[in-house]
């Protein structure tokens, strides 16, 4: 059977827009409107910011933990269950427009929240749900930890797509896990409207370096807050500066260059055509997981088994915090992580 023909030119977009800080439904409406706008421009892959639905937990960055209870509970009430009507609406829009969509959500799984990235293929199928493996600083009071099952590159209508959230890009082994699976388009998501210009500078360095090192395109989306929204998060002028700036919505080529000028303020849709032929052009010179690698000296072990809190029960009685879909290649959920740590590279655990 012949492999499906893939496009050589892919029109991509990254959305820098403000969430609705009042309700999940309001933010989903903004997501669907952005998808329609991108479709009218011929976009085939669209990326939204980190935990865009219902909103990034900015409150946790400026409030002491003892004062975050009310907003944390409100985030629980508006978080996204996967699957649910919210994800169904996005899937239907992806299918209607034949577009790959990568959406950041606060995922609720029973009593826990997770920073999740959802990759919908052009047929509306949810190809990957992954969770940020280590929440950063203040985020650790908000989200649980993801697992290695989400460090996966998936085949989509526009090519092989991998994703990481925010400071996961500072974990070189997490990045290498995706590089070794030959990602062609890497999706990066950051909150935006945080920390100020230094954050935007750091984001730019990080995504341009990953594009060069991986030899792939990087599509990065950061969020945006209006002045009214910033004021609603904190009445203190000094604290408002902490939730301002820090935007770097960008699309970067395998040669580490901006394909189009980045978007660093305001709302907008950044659109660019990706020439996938540039991937081979870059890797001909330096393929960090191929002819430029030395696996006999340096290699990576990835434990790709979902982390589950109960082992040994019948399948229908095992409670899992790693809900489907993770993909089709991970090891069985009942593999005992505590007694068998012999893990093959990107494979099932050794027996």
Describe this entry's structure for a reader.
Strands 5-4-3-2-1-11 form a 6-stranded mixed sheet. It has a 5-stranded mixed sheet with strand order 6-7-8-9-10, with helices on one face. The two termini are 33 Å apart. It has 9 helices and 11 strands. It has 2 domains: 277 residues, Nitrilase/N-carbamoyl-D-aminoacid amidohydrolase, CATH 3.60.110.10; 51 residues, no CATH class. With 351 residues, the protein is α/β, with parallel strands linked by helices. Helix 1 packs parallel to helix 4. InterPro entries: C-N_Hydrolase, C-N_Hydrolase_sf, Nitrilase, Nitrilase/CN_hydratase_CS, Nitrilases_CHs. This is Nit6803 family nitrilase. GO terms for molecular function: nitrilase activity. It comes from Methyloraptor flagellatus.
What is the H/E order? EHEHHHEEEEEHEHEHHEEH
What is the β-strand count? 11
Q: Report strand %.
A: 15-25%
CATH fold naming of the largest domain: Nitrilase/N-carbamoyl-D-aminoacid amidohydrolase
Output the CATH class name of the largest domain: Alpha Beta
Region (Disordered): 311-351
Organism: Methyloraptor flagellatus
Pfam families: CN_hydrolase
Family: Belongs to the carbon-nitrogen hydrolase superfamily. Nitrilase family.
What is the topological layout?
Blueprint (H helix, E strand, L loop, with lengths): L8 E8 L7 H17 L4 E3 L11 H4 L6 H10 L6 H13 L2 E10 L2 E9 L5 E6 L22 E3 L2 E7 L6 H8 L5 E6 L6 H18 L2 E6 L4 H7 L3 H4 L9 E3 L15 E8 L1 H9 L66
Parallel strand pairs: 1-2, 2-3, 7-8, 8-9
Antiparallel strand pairs: 1-11, 3-4, 4-5, 6-7, 9-10
């Amino acid at each position: 059977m012949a492999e499906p023909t893939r496009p050589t030119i892919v029109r991509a977009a990254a959305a820098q827009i403000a969430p609705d800080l009042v309700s999940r439904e309001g933010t989903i409406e903004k997501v669907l409107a952005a998808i329609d706008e991108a479709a009218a421009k011929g976009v085939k892959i669209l990326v939204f910011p980190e935990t865009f639905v219902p909103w990034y937990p900015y409150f946790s960055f400026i409030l002491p933990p003892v004062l975050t209870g009310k907003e944390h509970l409100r985030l629980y009430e508006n978080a996204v269950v996967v699957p649910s009507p919210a994800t169904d609406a996005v899937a239907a829009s992806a299918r209607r427009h034949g577009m790959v969509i990568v959406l950041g959500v606060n995922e609720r799984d029973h009593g826990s929240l997770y920073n999740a990235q959802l990759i919908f293929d052009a047929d509306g199928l949810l190809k990957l749900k992954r969770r940020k493996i280590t929440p950063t600083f203040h985020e650790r009071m908000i989200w649980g930890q993801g697992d290695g099952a989400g460090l996966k590159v998936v085949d989509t209508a526009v090519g092989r797509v991998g994703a990481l959230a925010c400071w996961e890009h500072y974990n070189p082994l997490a990045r290498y896990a995706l590089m070794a699976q030959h990602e062609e388009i890497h999706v990066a998501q950051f909150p935006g409207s945080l920390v100020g210009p230094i954050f935007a500078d750091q984001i730019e360095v990080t995504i341009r370096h990953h594009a060069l090192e991986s030899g792939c395109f990087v599509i990065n989306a950061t969020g945006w807050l209006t002045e009214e929204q910033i004021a609603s998060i904190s009445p203190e002028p000094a604290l408002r500066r902490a939730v301002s700036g820090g935007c770097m919505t960008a699309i970067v080529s395998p040669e580490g260059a901006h394909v189009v000028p980045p978007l660093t303020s305001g709302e907008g849709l950044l659109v660019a055509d990706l020439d996938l032929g540039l991937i081979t052009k870059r890797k001909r010179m330096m393929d960090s997981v191929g002819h430029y690698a030395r696996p006999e000296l340096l290699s990576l072990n990835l434990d790709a088994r979902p982390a589950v809190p109960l082992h040994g029960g019948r399948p229908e009685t095992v409670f899992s915090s790693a809900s489907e879909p993770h993909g089709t290649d991970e090891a069985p959920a009942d593999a005992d992580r505590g007694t068998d740590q012999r893990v093959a590279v990107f494979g099932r655990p050794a027996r």
